[in-house]
Amino acid sequence: MKVLVLGSTGYIGTAVTRRLTQDGHTVVPFLKTGTTLPPEPGLDVRLGNLTDPDSLRAAVTDDIDAVVNLATPTGDEHADTAAIDALTQPLRGTGRALVYTSGIWVLGATGDNTATEDTPTDPIDIVGYRPRIEQQVLDAARDDVRTAVIRPGIAYGHGGGIPALMLNWAKENGTGRYVGTPDTRWPMVHIDDLAALYTLVLTKADPGTLWHGIAHTAVGTPALAAAADLAAGGTGRAEPWPLAQAAETLGLPFAQALALDQTISGDRAADLLGWQPTQAHPTTDLTAGSYA
């Protein structure tokens, strides 16, 4: 396929772009107007802006077989709604694909109740309107657009993502640190395993379907913080970072997200698409892998 990718230069987008290319697809990056273009002769690049619907519509030319949206939302519901309208308009009635990236924070705190794709949403403030965007994408399947929504877990791997923040906290404070209480757990996924899921959804998923990109259902944040301390050269200590204090540094919405206790299943993708995560556990990657 020839795949237009929004957010291709981001943390997850880089991994997805790499996997799409490895699997034989042609990636067409959508880059912000004014971006310095890479020195690759003949590279097909589309320029525009997420807040400019005309540029999004123009990017989805007839030779584009699929669109993968990994771009960070603008934070403006009206702008994000208009962006989805613009991306889906050229695809309607064609059977071409649109894969949209959401996130697990739309489910809110699940505690011990393992959430699936059928669990009702209960979004925290930082993703308050995201479920409505998800539904907008899924509804476009009625107009013969092969839409799908992926909710990645907390992504790790290649020394990046939120675990990299935990590593920096350990270096700065002399001990591992996690936001909230010792009971906090994160559903997680290695970015290479997540990238494999994107290619499967793009090629195999039914229209109008929702998928959780979760390889590890619930990873305790104290264990992650202790592993980050080891990676930073410490002895594996970890201490809680009270939410109010973390909010002063990180901002309240992000701090609340990091303190969210969630247990979420990714079994649907394994059962129906044959997705098989193979990468090391996040604590192993921290202590003896890409973060060490």
Tell me the fraction of residues in β-strands, as a range.
15-25%
Instruction: Give the CATH H-level superfamily of the largest domain.
Output: NAD(P)-binding Rossmann-like Domain
CATH class annotation of the largest domain? Alpha Beta
Helical content class: 25-40%
Give the tally of β-strands.
Answer: 12
Distance between the termini: 37 Å
Mean pLDDT: 96
Shape: globular
**Helix/sheet category:** alpha/beta
Q: How many structural domains in the coordinates?
A: 2
As residue ranges, the low-confidence spans are none
Q: How do the SSEs run, as a string of H and E?
A: EHEEHEHEHEEHEEHEEHEHHHH
CATH architecture of the largest domain: 3-Layer(aba) Sandwich
**Neighbour order of strands in the largest sheet:** 3-2-1-4-5-6-10
CATH topology descriptor of the largest domain: Rossmann fold
Brief write-up:
The chain has 292 residues and is an alpha/beta fold.
